[in-house]
What we know:
Blueprint: E1 20-28, E2 36-44, E3 47-54, E4 57-61, E5 65-67, H1 82-86, E6 90-92, E7 95-96, E8 98-102, E9 108-110, E10 115-116, E11 127-131, E12 135-143
Antiparallel strand pairs: 1-2, 3-12, 4-11, 5-12, 6-7, 8-9, 8-11, 9-10
Amino acid sequence: MEPESNRSILITFSPQDIQEYFGELHINSNAPFNGEMTIELSGAGISRELVMPLNQGWDLVSININPGDEFYDEEDNRGPDPILMMEQFRIDEDNHNLEMLKDEDGRFYSPEFNFNNISYWNILKGYQIKVREGAEGTWAGEVIPSDQEFWLDENWNMVA
């Protein structure tokens, strides 16, 4: 490179865990007075994989992540699609381990009856899930901050 010229360097950061990371980037050159330059790097992981064990029967669940795009319906970005969120519990084309997913207002999704009136999964709310056999659900996404504000409605609430 010519003296006084610039070069951009792409540094990719894709942590698997939620924690802070620190490192150094060492740049060597043949410059007479600045032969080596060290740049301190730091970053925090904001994405994680959530593994949720479910017992046979009813479970009260909430997730502390905003799942990835694969769980969103292209036409509605208010929250993940409940059917897509529960698809991993499908056994085959005709059978589903999920009996029912229910929100705090009594809306529900039932694969057996091909019925869903939960328009989207509100990531700040809790849900009741009923499975025929114990299972494990896995979702990955951006962590919801622990200081995230949310509304409490009058009467009962199920919140993440």
